[in-house]
Design a protein that fits this description.
alpha/beta, 8-stranded parallel barrel, 12 strands
Amino acid sequence: MALVSSKEMFEKAYNGGYAIGAFNVNNMEIIQGITEAAQEVDAPLILQVSKGARAYANHTYLLKLVEAAIAETGLPICLHLDHGDTFELCKSCIDGGFTSVMIDASSKPFAENIELTRKVVDYAHEHGVVVEAELGALAGIEDDVKVSVEESHYTHPEEVQEFVEKTGCDSLAIAIGTSHGAYKFTAAQCTRNEKGELVPPPLRFDILDEVVQRLPGFPIVLHGSSSVPQQYVKMINENGGKMPDAVGIPEEQLRQAARSAVCKINIDSDLRLAMTGTIRQFFTEHPDKFDPREYLKPARANIKELVKHKLVDVLGCAGHAHELTNK
C-alpha cells in the first residue's frame, strides 16, 4: 500500500464521531512505536513532519522510514507537513512525495493569509495533495513556531466561511484554547486541585460549535493537543529533569472534540515526554549502559503504549483502518 490522502480519512472520521491521530515524527523509533500501536488496534494514521524535523533527519530519510512502516504494517498512512510557513517549503514537500501539507499563515493579516493559502492550495490540488490551513494563533513553542500568550488569539467564527471559500483549503486548524509545547498554560491561567496539581482552563467549545454551524461537514483540526502525561513528567523530574508545572489538555476534552467536527488531533509533546522520561530512568537505573539500542528499545515501547491509549481511549479511531484498505 502507498501513502494515502487524508481526504477519505476525514470523511469517515467526521461521520463516525472520531478523530485521526496526527503524530509528529523525527526518527525511526518514534515511527515504529506509533505505527506498531496503530497496527495492533487497526487505526488509520497521519504522520507529521515539521520544518525542524526535516532539518534534523532529512526529508528523504523520513519519507523512506514512513514507506518502510507502510510496508511492515499495511496501514493507511498520510504523510503531512506540519506548520509549513512558506510556499516554497510546501512545494518542496508536495514535489517530494507528501500527501498533505499545512500552510500556516495565521500570523499574517486575514487577506494575506487567504492569498498565501490560495497559492499553496492551487499548486497542491494540481498534484493531488490536500491542504490544511489555520485561522487563529495558538500560544506556545513547537520547533520554529513561537507564539507568546499576548500574541495568541482565538479563531473568529465569523471569518471561517469566507476563508474556506476563498482559499479552497481542505481542512482548517482553529484556536479554541489548545497550546503548543509541554507548558501549555501558566500557573496564573490555571486553578489547582486538592493535590496541588494545575487544572487548565476548559477549551472554548462555544467557538467550535459556532465554527461547525458556519462550516457544516467541514473537517476541523486541533493543534497543540498533547495531554502532558504526569507519569512521564514525574519520571523526568525524578531522574534529573526539571519540568515544574508542565500541564496539557485534559483527554476527556479532546474526546469531546473528536465526537464533534474535529477530524485531526495533533500530538507531539507527549511522545517526547515518554521517550525522554524512559531514557532518563534507564540511565538512572543502568549507569553502566551505553548501547543506544538498550535505552531506545524501552523508549519505543512506551511510545507504543502511549499511542495505543490515545487511539483507543481519546481519539476513538481504533478499528477503522480496514475501512480505508478494504475497498
